[in-house]
Write a structure and sequence with these properties.
The complex is a heterodimer of chains A (about 450) and B (about 475). Chain A is α+β, with helices and mostly antiparallel strands and about 450 residues long. Chain A is built from 9 helices and 21 strands. Classes of the chains: A alpha+beta (about 450), B alpha+beta (about 475). Chains A and B meet through strand 1, strand 2, strand 3, helix 2 and helix 4 of A and strand 2, strand 3, helix 2, helix 3 and strand 16 of B.
Amino acid sequence: MSIDQAEVARALEILGDGTRLDILGENADLLRYAESEITAQHSERRLRVRVRINRDGRAAAGSLETLDPDAVRTLADRLSAALADLPATSSNAPESPSGTNSGSTAPATPEIVPAQSVLESDPAVRHQWFNTVRVGLDSDMKLGGAIRYDVMDRVVADSTGLFRAETLTKASIQAIAKQDGRSASVKLLHRDADQIPIGEIPGRLREALTPLPSVDAHHGTCRVLLKPQAVNSLIATYGYAVLGANAYATGRSLVAGRLGEKITSELITLVDDGCDADGLPSGFDAEGNVRRRTTLIDRGVLTGVVSDQRRAGLTGGVPTGHAVPDGWRFGGDPVPSHLLLAPGESTEDELLAEVGSGLVVNRLDYLRVLHPKETLVTGTTRDATYWAEDGKLVGWHPQLRFTFKMDDVMNAILGVGAVRERCDQTFMESIVVPSLLIDAGPLVLP
Amino acid sequence: MMRDTAETVLALLPSDVQYGDVRVVRRTHELVLVELDGPGEVGYDDSLGLGLRIVIGGHWGFAATHRLDPQGIDAVIAQAVGQARAAGGGGHVALGQPVTTRATWSSPMEVDPFLVPLSTKLDLLSATVKEASTAGPLVQQVEASVDFYRDEKVFANTEGALIEQTLTESGGGLMVNAGDGNDVQRRSFPQGVPRQIRGHRGDFATAGWEHVLAIGLPENAARVASEAVALLTAPQCPDEVTTLVAGSNQLAMVLHECAGHPMEADRALGTEASLAGGTYATPERRGNFRWGSEIVSAYADATIPGALGSYAYDDEGVPAQRTQLVKDGIFQGYMSGRESAAALGDEPTGASRADGWQRLPLVRMTNICLEPGESSLAEMIAGTKRGILVDTNRGFSIDDQRMSFRFQTEMGWEIRDGKIGRMLKNCTYQGVTPQFWAELDALGGPDEWKVHGVPSCNKGEPLQVAHVGHGTVPGRFQNVQVGR
């Protein structure tokens, strides 16, 4: 842990009553490659100290990159001056309501054990991974992608005595192989680098770059098999747009007011669980709330949303542990962080057989919300996209753009794969999902 | 102190370093945001650190740290050197001509925004919110905000360059959400943002407080909020192929995605293929690829006074400059950094920038501009029998080659027989870059040319956010698929 508890305590003393610190010590090491050559190596050491002071119904925030007392004192003076200038407002009510997070009554911090494989890594390991994948490909295949190791020391502490700390490790590799104008991709990630099966990646890429002919673009509707990386984009975007407590409370969510009602296919059971080892576990959120396992959709029925302290009233008075950091570039509302979609019973071959004549999509890219309330989104396929006939892959299909309502897709699930993959998004820590077979209708081939 | 740190780092580099550069950067940011029920956010961010980039054995190593003490500097050098040496030698990095500039530069401004009292900022934003709230009870959410950035940067390299720059940027904006239980509609002013980002919205410039005052937030707030309410009962945009008239700020984002990103040289060289993607604008297409109709010419220009993508030197020490991207509809060339320019056999265009001290410089668009045409928005509308007028971006998606796109706008209007008709909601339009721009048949004139500052251009891994500008005019396109 690179963050000194005594320095944190001293900073809290300087900043005074009503202060919360959200501190992140980042150690990131990255190897990037393109056209089978290394293009960049990046190493970053950074300390981010986010300060929020809520005092007498007024709130001010700041950040700096040191816990040096002089720097903290300078920020404290500035925030105090700002607080003096601000009028009181009800929207800045004191936090830590009803003992949910005060120092003396807070529940214990879940223990997340960092992986030595990441803590002790060096650049040579990443070169070794790169070389393993590169030499495992055919000679006419070009490799692009990135290998990244992260060590993140986190502390959330406040002036009531709360102190939570954890060290999170993460290793990830993205490998994109190109051949004859076609591409296939694999992304694997884990808290423990030793658990990532690097040796399997070349075989998966070679298999995905299957020597099938190109087929003409099909139009209209058909069944679509979304492989896990494509489901990742769908479920993450759906969760972000629909399943946060503030969107629910303000009516911006499609499912506002529908707790207890059927909102998706009965084949969908979706939970958010920051402590599930199938994802990328982390024990608490930016307010220091312990992450709680929250069933969001149970066999198609809406059973919950995720909350922070401000919206804890929607989740039984206790936040679910989904407060986002101050200044987060994806907004200020609580949103899911660790989604897990329950697996089904179908093998990938069985799902493909059920496709009949239809599309197989490995990746949905640049999926963007056009209308949140209607869950209308648009995005494109990317990398391996195939056409199937009679349940068998028969050719490479041109990339295409889908514009659809996620709500329609979530109600048209015909099958769920038994095998799940661990994925991530820039706006979500982890998403664990299987393949989904979508009935003909909501996904229209233009 | 920052200059001393940079010189200390360079002096400590081992002798086998073939090239090295160091950037010491302090970034200061202030945000003030007011909501319907009062001040929602006052924030001050301060970030100071250094990024070191070296070449050993023909391989890059980059390391960055917030620790500027001797131990921190030793560690950052060891990390960068360790990375480059781990590649095993035998590589080759070509950077073209050495950069030896020694200079100092500060961006111009009239009123330092960091010296304007908080109470003045709160008064402006509170007046804006108050005006917006006059649109009635269906107004559910109002956010008015101002943001100010200051980057103090020292760049030094082993070729002898030493450049000190200070850039001050100011911006402000308004977002209104209206809802009636069935629908939610958003209006933004003076331009939209793709997500519900708190703050960081509106129009930005490399300028001072005077830019915020010129935006006219309170003066436009009631109109913008009324439009959000009116959208709730407006008809849906019809599905049809029709004539599209795009306002200046809407065209800014289309230009950003269709010309800005694809004409960044690193995409053409494949180094962004794993994340952002590649480009249709491949090197062999320079000078012969028809990007758009004959009336369209586009360029990148980092020297436009006050524009958000302007500076004096990029983060490799190369002077800011103007670069022709499209001339009379034909794709001409790229924005580039030193390495990507050398790989293409070009001179660098001074477009290599990093997001703070902790990130590696990448090829980033600067101010992407359309050369104005000879028409006007009024003439385009008057000359259109049937079509739609769209304004203010709400969201978009484009494929990894920057070809197939779909944009959604916050609002639109019917055009019937040369006149503006009903307001339309949920307007989207889609196209494929060269086909779409080939249908451009009119562009606004010089008096309608305006630079829009966008502080949220994302690229790279780790993700970097760049501040860019777009000089655009209204434009008219035929045969565009619109719909909802």
